[in-house]
Design goal:
Radius of gyration: 30 Å
Strand order of the largest sheet: 2-1-5-3-4
Order of helices and strands: HEEEEE
Largest sheet: 5 strands, mixed
Number of helices: 1
Number of strands: 5
Strand content: 15-25%
Helix content: 10-25%
Structural class: alpha+beta
Length: about 120
């Protein structure tokens, strides 16, 4: 004995199949994100480990590196200060930028008072 599906049953079956395919596609997209490597070049400072970041996620800013005789001024990518709110779309290397510390031996002034306006100079 052969049963035929009603139009409503056929439509419900099609809807269920479409929903199932959408769920499978969504899971595939969620779990198939590419991973990229973000490398930190400390340029002579202490080592900072590379991290893996999923495509379009943001990399967490690491602790500032340390380099004797220098002050860390930021992480740079392609000669520009890196914005850690930028989604990662490829492997990248962030390079530490340093400013050399300068020790001043002393300053000698032979004036008792000196007044300068903003941007003023004195010799």
């Amino acid at each position: 004995m052969e049963k035929k599906l009603s139009e409503k049953s056929k439509r419900n079956l099609v809807i269920c199949v479409i929903i199932l395919l959408l769920i499978i596609l969504s899971l595939f997209l969620i779990f198939s994100k590419k991973e990229y490597v973000v490398t930190f070049d400390t340029d002579g400072g202490n080592e900072i480990a590379s991290v893996k970041v999923k495509e379009n996620d943001k990399v967490k800013e690491p602790e500032n590196p340390i380099k004797e005789g220098f002050t860390f001024t930021g992480w740079y990518y392609n000669e520009e200060l890196y914005n850690f709110d930028t989604p990662v779309k490829q492997d990248i290397t962030l390079k530490a930028n340093w400013e050399e510390n300068v020790e001043i031996e002393g300053i000698e002034l032979n004036l008792t008072t000196l007044s300068l306006s903003p941007d003023g100079t004195a010799t």
